[in-house]
Amino acid sequence: MSVRGIPLKLFPARKYPPSLRVRLALWNVLIFILTFLILGGIVYSVVTYNLQASLDKRLMTQGEKLQAITRIWLLDGHAVDSALFTQLARSMQQNEFTTDDLYIKLFDVKTGRPLQYSPNLQQSRIRYKQSDFQAAVHGQQVITTYYDRSGSAVRVLTMPLLDITHHTIAIAQIGRSLASIRQVQVLLAIVLCVGGACAILLLYGMNLILTKREVQPLSQLSAEMRNLSVGELGVRLEARQRIREVQLLTEAFNQMSQRLEASFTLQRNFVADVSHELRTPLTALRGQIDVFLMNPDLESGIRQDVQQIRGELVRLSHLVDNLLAMARVETGILPEISEEHVERVELDLLLVEVTRQAKFLSQEVTVELGQLQQVLVMGERDALKQMLLNIVDNALAYTPPGGKVFMEVAEAVDLPLILQEQQRTMQTSWAVIHIRDTGQGIAPSDLPHIFERHYRAARTKVRGTLGAGIGLSLARLIAQAHQGEITVESEVMQGSCFHVWLPLSQA
Asked: Where a domain ends, among 297, 313, 333?
């Protein structure tokens, strides 16, 4: 992907946290689960308690019924014998509507020997607890749950049967299996679990749907902010929103966009004004110095000083051009080729011109031309010249006195990997400009970063002070604006070689 012919820097994919709608849905589900667990536990406990309380009440009612039968039997003048116990064991008269699985067991109060069982009790597998029996002997009623090895449970009421004088004549046990209650508990647990799981899934899905609708303005705002660029600062979002917080955020975004637009407009105007105000006096000074140097009566010493001043003016003009161009880049105005300024540029002649001007940048380093093959490219001559001067100026800055800078141009034969895909797309030939110096070279750790804006390698400048780190960055932007590229090869203390690749003119 590229913008105005300039490839975008690829960044590794970032791992984003879960979206707001997912987090809201998960929080709602978590709250629902906690609430459901609490309410489900309460429902389960209440139902279990009511079932057991209802069973205990039925056991007590049946106990009262046995006591009433005993009292009536004794008031009628009957003796306490086996007939009474048989009558008590058969006291549960049942029909289709009252059938029940309650059972009755009667024990001798002195020996604890079984006296009688209810007819529905086929066999007896449990024996009373001695503590419950003794409590019943002393006139107390005790309800106990008995368990067998398989985990089955039975609820048992142990109570005394009293005569008219309130003496204990027998111990009665009334019991009922808890299997039906356990079945109800299991069924209730299944219903709660299955129903809860279905409710959780339904709640999660509904939350995703509803929160997607509610956070859609936030997604739109995020997309607008992600796509915000210098050329689209006039974008404004609809301020009226359904959610107050979203409306406040949208209004803040619109105000920020408005302020940014005003700020960048001010910067563009400032760059244009400074460009005119700086270039005009520098051009006038250079013109006056050129006229002064045309005087044949000028002394050699003064002429040499004036030429040195002219060289510094050339260098200052070049620096101003770089700063202004980079200022335009900082405000979002990337270097691009204007159709009205595009022309066929002879690179060999351009190198001769750059060499002539580079001599004013440094008097201690020799600039030489090598092979100059006549090649033509389509582009903006002044921009290409500025690009080459930036590279040459960088080479001169890091080349010690007595060193050399070589420049040559030829038609490219082997392309770097970065241009091979573009070669297949454009189906064109390439020209390559080699700018080689005998300077101190670039460290391998600095080599991948030298084209980054404002990056300064850990090298010692031979000429001038430490720069702003914009020359090579701007040079690469200009090359990419011409559908080209710049590569570099360097070894420490062996010098560097910059390669400028440009597509040849098709004409």
From this structure: 333
DSSP letter string, 426-491: H---EEEEEEEE-S----TTTGGGTTSTT---S---SSSS---S-HHHHHHHHHHHTT-EEEEEEE
- Note whether 343 and 381 are same-domain residues: yes
Angle subtended at Cα 362 by Cα 361 and Cα 368, rounded to the nearest 5 degrees? 95
**Rounded mean pLDDT for each run of 10 residues along the chain, 507 residues in total:** 38 59 85 92 93 91 89 84 80 60 87 84 75 88 88 90 88 89 91 92 88 76 67 62 72 79 74 69 79 79 80 72 65 63 89 86 86 90 87 89 92 80 73 92 87 69 56 86 90 91 82
Cα 298 from Cα 286, distance rounded (Å) = 17
Collapsed DSSP state (helix, strand, coil) of residue 153? strand
Same domain for 178 and 67? yes
Cα angle at 300 between 297 and 303, to 5 degrees?
85
b/e sequence 474-500, b meaning 16+ C-beta within 10 Å: bbbbbbbbbbbbbbbebeeeebbbbbb
CA 93 to chain centre: 74
Q: Is 493 left (phi over 0), alpha (psi -120 to 50) or beta?
A: left
Of 333, 357, 372, which one is at a domain's C-terminal end? 333
Give the domain range for residue 403: 337-503
* One domain for residues 30 and 64: yes
CA atoms of 84 and 425, how far apart (whole Å): 112
Count CB neighbours of 337 within 10 A.
Answer: 17
In this structure, the answer to whether residues 350 and 233 fall within a common structural domain is no
> What is this structure's pTM?
0.48
Note whether 255 and 140 are same-domain residues. no
Phi-psi region of 319 (alpha: psi -120 to 50; beta: other; left: phi over 0): alpha
